Amino acid sequence: MPIITVDLFEGRSREQREAFAKAVTEAAVQTLKAPLDHTWVIFRDHKKTNWAMGGSLCDK
Amino acid sequence: MPIITVDLFEGRSREQREAFAKAVTEAAVQTLKAPLDHTWVIFRDHKKTNWAMGGSLCDK
Amino acid sequence: MPIITVDLFEGRSREQREAFAKAVTEAAVQTLKAPLDHTWVIFRDHKKTNWAMGGSLCDK
Amino acid sequence: MPIITVDLFEGRSREQREAFAKAVTEAAVQTLKAPLDHTWVIFRDHKKTNWAMGGSLCDK
Amino acid sequence: MPIITVDLFEGRSREQREAFAKAVTEAAVQTLKAPLDHTWVIFRDHKKTNWAMGGSLCDK
Amino acid sequence: MPIITVDLFEGRSREQREAFAKAVTEAAVQTLKAPLDHTWVIFRDHKKTNWAMGGSLCDK
How far apart are CA C28 and CA C24, in angstroms? Predict the structure, then answer.
């Protein structure tokens, strides 16, 4: 533990994901006292046509 | 809040997803007193070969 | 399928959850052509101290 | 219930998934006293570039 | 990886959960070629009043 | 979007969660170009008796 899951719109680059994973992992180790190797970050990409806010799909 | 996640088989049309998101959002606002803009609906499409019931994959 | 998961703040009554589950299930059957018995709705209650928006916990 | 969700790297064959779903379902029925037809297993495939351990993406 | 999440009704004993975790982990190692130490199983207990099937809460 | 879900063992203090949520949110805004108000962080606490690694529950 911990498992940090990120649900977001598709389209982020590998560099963005790597930078984010690194920052989140450092924060987990420092503030949550998480073990480094057991800090997992999973990105789940979503199409805007699969995400609605306020009742409307976000692809409009 | 709330976040309403829908795990279902792939293949629903945009119209179906939009109609469902709208109906669910209205129900959330009316029955759960959820704020409209903060009611998010996320569809996660699954292949039938990735879903098993009773021990058998659903693509049979 | 489908599985409809609702992440929300704790505190909704049984009546609210039942009404919401009923409305969502009807919408799933009508718009997504989901089978009635296989439409499952799961509520996950969260404390406001476990949910942050914009970097601040929601219990303030 | 129960719903058993498996987050793993993409690339497992249909045979592997079917064998795993069968084994997990049998274990659920025997040890958890789960009803067979209501034991659902969902596989969610992830790219290694979407999964980080220890702050580094797993595609390296 | 993998992460195996089990959503189920509350009430299973520690012995049941341990036996199930062991069986699932063995199946993951054998059929999915998962590394033993990186096979994580998480149980999420749900009250029957938080789970609906066919539009009715399961606590009836 | 994004929704950042943190599955971890119970026992972290409010200060730890707030510091982590703040750090993660800042990283999301800077590296993922996420909108501040739409960056949600949800903590899900788990008992060690509900989490297994390598086939054994973590409460041992």
Answer: 6
